[in-house]
Amino acid sequence: MKSDRFRAAVEGKDFSAIEEVLADQVSFRSPVVFKPYEGRKAIGVLLGAVAQVFEEFRYTDQVETGDTAVLVFEARVGDRELNGVDILRFDDEGRVGELTVMVRPMSAMHALAEAMQSKLAAAGSG
Question: What is the CA radius of gyration of the chain?
Answer without folding.
Answer: 14
